[in-house]
Task: structure prediction
Amino acid sequence: MHTHMKNIACLTFALLLMALSAAGCTETPGAAPTGDPIRLTVLYTNDEHGWMAPTERSGGAAGLLHRWREEEGLSEEGAFLILSGGDLWTGPALATWFDGESMVDAMNTMGYHAAALGNHEFDFGREGLRAREAQAEFAFLGANVLDEASGAPIEEALPYVIEEVAGLRVGIVGLASTRTPRTTMPTHVAGIDFADYATTLKRVVPELRDEGADLVLIISHLCSTEMSALAETAAELDVAMIGGGHCHERVSRVVDGVALVQAGWRMDAYGRVDLVYDPATQNVTDVSVVVKSNAPGQGDAEVEAIIAQWQAELDGALLVPIGYTASGVDRNSAAMHNMVMDAWLAGYPADAALSNPGGFRQDIDAGEITLADIVGVLPFDNTIVDVTLTGRQLIAGYTHGSRRPAVGGLRRTGSDYTVNGTPLDPQATYQVLVNDYMYAGGDGYAFATYDPDAYLTGIDWRQPLIEWISGLRTSPDDPLENYLDTSQR
Result:
């Protein structure tokens, strides 16, 4: 009798479970979430370039986190993702001097989930990137960054990650710019293939779906034109967002149901993307995007303390005065370019000097000039290369690209060129100083082709400038302006 009753009870319980399951009251492992629509918010920055400290126009990292909490409702329990389009470091000395370690420290505290590989992530070599990847509490992503020999993802980054937020499994794919070999030190990315964007997405998005991603987002170091061109492919793959970078633009629009977002640079702004996901249809039903300013204001105390700690360490190392300027020197001015090139030629015997304008990254403010200012102006770890060029090749280097390089020794008047006051001879040879980024083919320069046996001096490109300014012994009574050449060359 007891056995019979037990069997009836077991059968009844089994039938009840089947009924509950059929009614949707139980959930099998790995099944799509069910219930009310879920709102997911993405907070997005790009091209931070180490500008963690507040400035006259930005609240910096601390201001950003405070704003996110107070204005956007960011909380650990909320449905938020914090993402970056890359170029995290290389800028002010506060980040550059420490090879990006200080910037990653701040971003860890801010709660970033992932960052795309920008070209400047390679500025300190792959060893430097590995060090930052090990330090970061967020993922570095580059699905199209592949080892040339094996075709596999490089070890310094992941192709994608899946983050679980508010019951959603969100796949995040990273894309690096295919122009990276031209916009970072080429030798730092030797042996790496930067594959086509659309081809990469068609390969990895289905992998993410197979791994259980409910929706997919892209973070990238792509300019707005590239983002727009990729929107159709993203829409076909049901990708909800493309975050960009590199060109320092502000982008906030929806194309074919795909949110496109890019938030300027230097933490001056951030993007907010809101996505509504319907578990019943397993689709994103609504998407909106806006870019907002990070104006100066109150900052998060914990991030402020981190910045103060790194600033104190930097001050001990770099706040060594070397000169004085009454009005400051703009990074894009002829005065800045001429000063750096003339300093190279004063410190090393050569006929001329050329440096790409993109290497000048910061102004020198009025007042005392320190070593930190020079690191900010020339933040990359470049060295000087002595190349032998014909006059014709020297002109080709000068006229290469849409922006003329900074030059020393060489001067153009109309269609005529002189080298140190003497008419340039197209057939003669000249000793010309360039930085090793240009020599390795950066920005498409062909100096290594012209002179494959050039002399690698090993001289840090900042050192001649430091020595030149120090030697002037400038002061408020005799400022740097008295020694600057402001003419266009």
Notes: The chain has 15 helices and 24 strands. The mean pLDDT is 92. The chain has two domains: 38-307, 320-483.
